[in-house]
Amino acid sequence: MPRADQPGTGPHLISAAPRPDTRHPTDTTRPMRYAPGFTGARLIIFSLLCFTGAACTPSCAEDADALAKQLSNPVAALISLPLQMNWDSGLGDKGLGDKWLLNVQPVIPFSLGDHWSLISRTIIPFAAQSDVIPGDPHQSGLGDITQSFFFSPKEPLGGWIIGAGPAMLLPTATDSSLGYGKWGLGATMVVLKQTPSAWTYGALWNHIWSVAGNENRPDISSTFIQPFISRGLGQGITAGANLEASYDWEGRHWVVPLNLSLSKVTKFGTQLVSIGGGVRYYLESPAGGPSWGLRFTLTFLFPK
Description:
CATH architecture: Beta Barrel
Helix content: 10-25%
Shape: globular
CATH topology: Porin
Number of domains: 1
Radius of gyration: 19 Å
Distance between the termini: 21 Å
CATH class: Mainly Beta
CATH superfamily: monomeric porin ompg
């Protein structure tokens, strides 16, 4: 269920994120390096306890389940604004570095006649990292923006929902450590199935190559593969798991986090939202890359 609002299932969905910075930190003596993450963990646990206990009428539960099912489908005809906060730990030579990443990910579908839809998905990242780059203990700012378009049939083909189209990387980073410094072009595709028993499973893929930009920066050739599975539990609650595997063909390394998530559709006043949290463990990452992380999501929903 690779929807950005459902932690561990999207995310940085369809993104060609910059390679993890593997340079050594300069300060390995600062105490309580993990304090921000523990605060994030408490926030996620408290939020999950609150939203999983929320009451809902039968009619409300049916509507919430329908929206949760749409959120599990990245090419559904649903306007949404996901805000996805990620925290990764264990960066740097001594594992003392960490990184916060807020992805603002508007999703806007367009109808192309009776049979086709066009879904625009944008990822606008804002990052802050500490003890990752030697000689410069902190960096923050805007990262590179990723824009993807999916052309998708309105009806499933043989029971399968599919979508495919172009993907683009825009060199918008305000700090060289937060982006590639290159324009990128490529393709993306998703295939998934949703069953009457509330299961969603499938996979998402994309690949982006650099086509222009700073000649002093490394070229880009990056593949992203995301197998995913989720199940609706009723009352608008969804549990899911996925891998967000990426391979850097230039740097010759994998980054493979395993994500576990829980999310719920509810209301803030009259505004429909999905809130959720999750954890991830990096099965594979380069030297100096992250070891584990947390994710918290808040998605504003605008059903027709």
